[in-house]
Specification:
The chain is α+β, with helices and mostly antiparallel strands and 686 residues long. The strands form two sheets. Strands 1-10-9-6-7 form a five-stranded antiparallel β-sheet, covered by helices on one side. Strands 2-3-4-5-8 form a five-stranded antiparallel β-sheet, covered by helices on one side. α3 runs antiparallel to α4.
Length: 686
């Protein structure tokens, strides 16, 4: 009998067991697929997989994986589809968790909000969200693994270069329960990165120690973290294996980081030309990214201020209407109170009159019967009058009660309105503070713009605008900065029959470039007055500009010295774009030159000079890359071929016409697009 019962129970439990196994198999399959698709852009497939996983988790009552799948879905949509939709998903997850009183759901929705704030580079707000989520987990969910939150904080502190905090977060992550292999490897990744902030020989010692454990764990768990390539590059660099560092740098996907690391690797290998090429590429990408970010942040800030201003005006108008309605209701209540007081006074006067009549009747002794008749008559009238007065009083009291109820309701309503008014006053105060800050920002911006205008005037005044009138020489030049101030320069010095001249292009744009340009221009002029050859001028300028050059700024320059009598030309090209020189068979071709590094990049360089026997009758055009690399609104460059075509098929009367025609062609090619670089052109005809 007992065996039959056991067999029967097993028969009943068999479908449940099979269903649980099916759920577990589906969960494992869908979870694996979710993490595979997470790093792709297959949006529709990822959302379908996570929706199925959430449904299976609900059936299997796997609460933790249910909310983790939801959080992954929200973060994926936030980063790859739409920020607004991603934030809506996070809010929906939080609302669902609140309705079902799920502490796990509240925790994972908090982590999702923190991740979104971190993606928006709102690091202070993201740090606050992560710390609150960790505190909530420690209070209600001690067995839940909070390592991802600690590792996210480690990333924030890595961006701030706070070594102590990075190590603290990595250690706390390693102490969390139910740790996964990827979390362990990521924690040791941050320990490797933190070692880079040590000083002297400690960098190599600490990095090699952390690297050995990180390498062992990566192989053990077969996991490749997002920092793997960076750590391998830093390890190769610190240990002097620059060939390995170069091979690893070539695999970096980010163009900005790849060009920077390859420039460093070539520099330490002593390959200066390659180092220069990749460093120039790094500066170009960096300038482009910074310009785009500034425009985007300015547009978003202006849009936010317009929305806040519109909302505040609507709130103020609504509050004013409510105040007017309350004032009108108070006036009506005051009128009713005055009417009630008038009725009470009239009743008192009637009572006095009746009392006076009764006294007169009582004292009248001539005719008692007549007095009694009169008294009865008065009493009858009095009773009639009193009944009327009672009825009227009843109406008055009823009205008074209604008025009191109305007053009570209005007082209650006014109390709530006053609370709302206080809240609005707080909001107005905060908004006024924001307006004041905006006004201060606007004032500062206007001051900066004024200073930049003055700086532009000073900079432009440093460039020569009066060109020499010398027999056998036709010289003209112009510089048009892309911003208020620029980094291009040109200069010349006429000493007897020798003309010293240069055109330069400083790395970067704006105020730093203009200051570097001023220093370079001053050095050229001083050395030209000493009648030194162009190669010697470049070498002396490099020695001066590499000192205390912490920002690694440099200037490409073409420096020349021409004898106006013989046409003999000495020149040195320091990393600058090749000039165009005229000839007999054609009107222009690029001058072939030996390569030199830019000025100011590496100390103790010896620059190579060259010479041409005579360039008499052969016009020379020196320019910055703002000419041939000028872009239109479709990011199409003017190009070398187009520039040569203009020079070869246009008849020019003098050097000034050459410069002005090329400037006009650049403006026409841009077609309204903003200038992407400074534009400098010098033409010499002899």
């Amino acid at each position: 009998m007992g065996r039959r019962i056991v067999t029967y129970l097993l028969f009943l439990l068999l479908p449940l067991t099979l269903a649980a196994q099916d759920h577990q198999a589906d969960i494992e399959r869908l979870t694996k697929e979710m993490y595979r698709l997470y790093s792709t852009h297959e949006t529709e497939q990822f959302i379908n997989v996570t929706d199925q996983l959430k449904e299976v988790c609900l059936q299997a009552k796997d609460e933790g994986l249910f909310y983790r799948a939801w959080a992954n879905q929200a973060y994926f949509v936030f980063n790859k589809v739409s920020r607004e939709k991603g934030m809506e998903m996070s809010k929906a997850m939080n609302d669902y968790a609140q309705q079902h009183d799920s502490k796990l759901g509240i925790y994972y929705s908090s982590i999702a909000n923190a991740n979104q704030a971190s993606s928006l580079r709102m690091e202070i707000k993201a740090e606050e969200y992560y710390l609150k989520a960790i505190k909530y987990k420690q209070t209600y969910l001690p067995q839940v693994n909070a390592a991802p939150a600690y590792l996210a904080l480690a990333k924030i502190y890595f961006n701030r270069r706070d070594q102590k905090k990075i190590l603290e977060m990595a250690d706390k992550a390693l102490k969390e329960p139910n740790l996964t292999g990827p979390s362990i490897v990521d924690a040791w990744s941050y320990r490797c990165l933190a070692a880079l902030y040590n000083q002297g020989d400690e960098v190599k010692t600490e990095l090699n120690k952390a690297y050995a454990e990180w390498k062992r764990l990566s192989e053990k768990y077969k996991y490749r973290s997002s920092f793997t390539n960076d750590i391998e590059i830093y390890h190769a660099r610190v240990n002097g294996d620059y060939e390995r560092m170069l091979e690893l740098a070539k695999k970096i996907k980010s163009p900005l980081e790849r060009s920077q690391q390859m420039s460093h690797a070539y520099q330490w290998l002593g390959k200066w030309q390659e180092a220069l090429e990749y460093y120039t590429e790094y500066k170009r990408i960096s300038d482009s990214i910074n310009t785009a970010d500034i425009r985007k942040q300015s547009a978003e800030h202006a849009m936010q201020m317009d929305v806040i201003r519109a909302e505040n005006e609507a709130k103020e108008q609504k509050l004013l209407n409510q105040a007017l309605r309350l004032k009108h209701q108070e006036s009506e209540l005051e009128q009713e109170r005055l009417e009630k007081e008038a009725l009470d006074l009239m009743l008192k006067n009637r009572n006095i009159e009746l009392q006076h009549a009764a006294v007169l009747l009582k004292n009248d002794s001539l005719d008692r019967h007549a007095q009694q008749l009169k008294l009865s008559e008065y009493q009858s009238k009095l009773e009639t009058q009193q009944s009327k007065e009672h009825a009227r009083l009843f109406r008055i009291y009823a009205g008074a009660v209604l008025a009191l109820l109305t007053i009570a309701f209005m007082a209650f309503h006014l109390y709530h309105r006053q609370r709302q008014l206080k809240k609005l006053q707080i909001v107005n105060k905060e908004l006024k503070t924001a307006y004041n800050q905006l006004e201060e920002t606007t004032t500062a911006k206007e001051r900066i713009e004024s200073e930049l205008r003055i700086a532009r005037e000073i900079q432009m005044s440093m460039l020569p605008h009066v060109f020499p009138e010398h027999e056998g020489l036709d010289l003209y030049a112009s510089m048009i900065p892309a911003r208020e101030v620029g980094g291009d320069l040109y200069d010349f010095l006429l000493e007897d029959d020798n003309l010293y001249f240069c055109v330069g292009d400083v790395s970067g744009k704006g105020v730093p470039a203009s200051l570097f340009m001023a220093q370079a221009s001053r050095l050229f002029h001083a050395l030209a007055k000493q009648h030194q050859l162009p190669a010697a001028i470049a070498t002396r300028m490099n020695d001066e500009l590499t000192e205390k050059n912490d920002n690694c700024m440099f200037v490409t320059m073409f420096i020349g010295e021409m004898n106006l009598t013989t046409g003999h030309l000495y020149f040195c090209n320091a990393g600058h774009t090749p000039p165009v020189i005229g000839g007999d068979a054609q009107k222009g071709s690029f001058l072939k030159m030996k390569p030199n590094a830019p000025i100011g990049l590496w100390p103790r360089l010896q620059f190579i000079g060259e010479e041409i026997t005579s360039i008499k009758g052969r016009p020379l055009l020196i320019y910055s890359d703002g000419l041939n690399e000028a872009e239109n609104d479709r990011q199409e460059q003017l190009g070398n071929d187009r520039m040569l075509d203009i020079l070869r098929h246009t008849e020019f009367e003098n050097a000034r016409q050459v410069v002005e025609v090329l400037n006009a062609e650049v403006e026409r090619h841009r077609h309204g697009a903003e200038a992407n670089d400074d534009l400098t052109i010098m033409c010499i005809r002899s």
